[in-house]
Design a protein that fits this description.
Blueprint (H helix, E strand, L loop, with lengths): L5 H6 L1 H5 L5 H13 L1 H19 L7 H16 L1
Helix pairs in contact: 4-5
């Protein structure tokens, strides 16, 4: 099984949320999330933003928007 760290999970968070990771990477992400409260918080925040965007019929987030948002959330969680 592959090992996932915070940087790897952050780089693949959209794929994780959209169910696009390989089975091994998905399992590694779940294992990492079980022991990392910072990544768990990032995942939760990302889900909340995705839900808000989806339910309020705003413009979909671009990859650049998601990247900026994720960087901001990570900075807040890590501090």
């Amino acid at each position: 099984m592959s090992v996932m760290d915070c940087a790897s999970l952050a780089a693949q968070i959209n794929e994780f949320l959209e169910g696009e990771l390989s089975e091994a990477d998905h399992a590694a992400a779940l294992e990492h999330l079980a022991s990392c409260t910072a990544c768990e918080a990032v995942l939760s925040e990302t889900r909340e933003v995705d839900d808000l965007v989806e339910h309020h019929e705003h413009q979909p987030l671009t990859d650049d928007d998601r990247s900026r948002m994720l960087s901001t959330v990570i900075e807040e969680v890590v501090e």
